[in-house]
Design brief:
Blueprint (H helix, E strand, L loop, with lengths): L8 H19 L5 H11 L5 E5 L2 H15 L4 E3 L2 H4 L12 E5 L6 H4 L2 H7 L2 E6 L5 H4 L3 E4 L15 H21 L3 H7 L3 H6 L3 H4 L8 E3 L4 H11 L3 E5 L5 E6 H8 L4 H5 L8 E2 L4 E2 L4 H11 L3 E5 L5 E6 H6 L4
Parallel strand pairs: 1-2, 1-3, 3-4, 4-5, 6-7, 10-11
Antiparallel strand pairs: 7-8, 8-9, 11-12
Helix pairs in contact: 1-8, 2-8, 3-8
């Protein structure tokens, strides 16, 4: 077989990327009222969002389903060939089906349409042909048209699947925004791996109970030192009469006051006289990565954790972050 062109492999690769990039740029013009209607329909879905597609569009559908599920929209993929042999029983009247077909005439997908209507599920389609059977039978059809595939034969789905994937991402993220999906929600669905670690909440790894020594500011220093030893902590949180955080006492505070008074006299001093007042702290619902930034920026090892009333509820030590694999 002879060479099909005189371009080098790198030149040919760049040409493929240009074709696909051009397809995405033109796709912006197809984001119109149909897109808004589709997002509203997905947002109002009482059941699940069910992605379906055959071949390469099916693989794109799996990815879109995964993205939607991870961003707060219960989703799944339904293989159209399996669907017509019984798996359509997974679809309910509360679901929204999102079907993907560039031609809009994919046999396996078209065969689903009548049953989907009888079940009562709503149907959204992503297709490059608004005059197709799929588009005409959809409640909403989003145009995902491309001028040409990047494949020189015009056969292998390339630019078309890139466009489908991008439009699916646009739907998923517009839906995320409409739901008001936050970082803490994302953390709920991503508990594992490095991503899950980055999304850990402070209260999930802070020291609590006996591991978090808290004393009133009038407690003598000798009692504070005993409590710190018993709790195996590196510091002690100090509160006022209302239980509000007023200070922190660390070994650094102890060393700084050794030069001021004899050890015996210092032992009877109330901790408020030797503590660091108004210490840096963090709210229990903040991300652990925010605590890391504070500890590094201020070059400290401990950080009191407070609730919305300013009361200490925990203690975050650099060692806790090390154990969690965050540093």
């Amino acid at each position: 077989m002879g060479e099909s062109n005189t371009m080098s492999s790198s030149e040919y690769g760049k040409n493929v990327l240009r074709i696909e990039a051009d397809a995405l740029r033109r796709l912006v013009d197809y984001v119109d009222i149909s897109f808004d209607q589709a997002v509203d329909m997905l947002f109002s879905c009482k059941g699940r969002i069910i992605l379906t597609g055959m071949g390469k569009p099916g693989l794109i559908g799996r990815k879109i389903a995964a993205t939607m599920a991870s961003t707060g929209s219960p989703s799944m993929f339904l293989h159209p060939a399996e669907a017509i042999h019984g798996d359509l029983g997974m679809v309910t009247a509360n679901d929204v089906v999102l079907a993907i077909s560039h031609s809009g005439e994919t046999q396996e997908v078209v065969k689903l349409l009548e049953t989907i209507k009888r079940i009562g599920a709503q149907l959204i389609s992503l297709t490059g042909n608004l005059n197709s059977t799929l588009a005409k039978n959809s409640d909403v059809s989003i145009h995902v048209y491309i001028d040409k595939e990047a494949c020189p034969l015009g056969l292998a789905p390339t630019a078309s699947t890139t466009a489908q994937l991008a439009m699916g991402d646009a739907l998923a993220l517009a839906l995320l925004e409409k739901r008001g999906f936050k970082e803490e929600d994302f953390a709920l669905y991503h508990p594992g791996g490095s991503l899950g670690k980055k999304l850990l909440i402070v209260k999930e790894i802070m020291r609590k109970g006996e591991a978090n020594p808290i004393v009133h500011e009038d407690v003598p220093l000798k009692d504070v030192l005993l409590l710190i030893t018993q709790s195996r902590a590196g510091c002690c949180t100090v509160v006022d009469d209302k239980g509000i955080l007023s200070g922190i006492f660390t070994d650094g505070d102890l060393r700084r006051h050794f030069d001021d008074k004899p050890c015996a006299a210092l032992a009877d001093e109330p901790v408020k006289n030797v503590m660091t007042p108004a210490p840096l702290n963090i709210h229990e619902d903040k991300l652990a990565v925010e605590a890391i930034c504070l500890l590094r920026e201020k070059k400290i090892d401990e950080l009191p954790v407070v609730n919305s009333e300013g009361m200490p509820v925990g203690l975050l030590d650099i060692q806790d972050l090390l154990k969690a694999g965050l540093v």
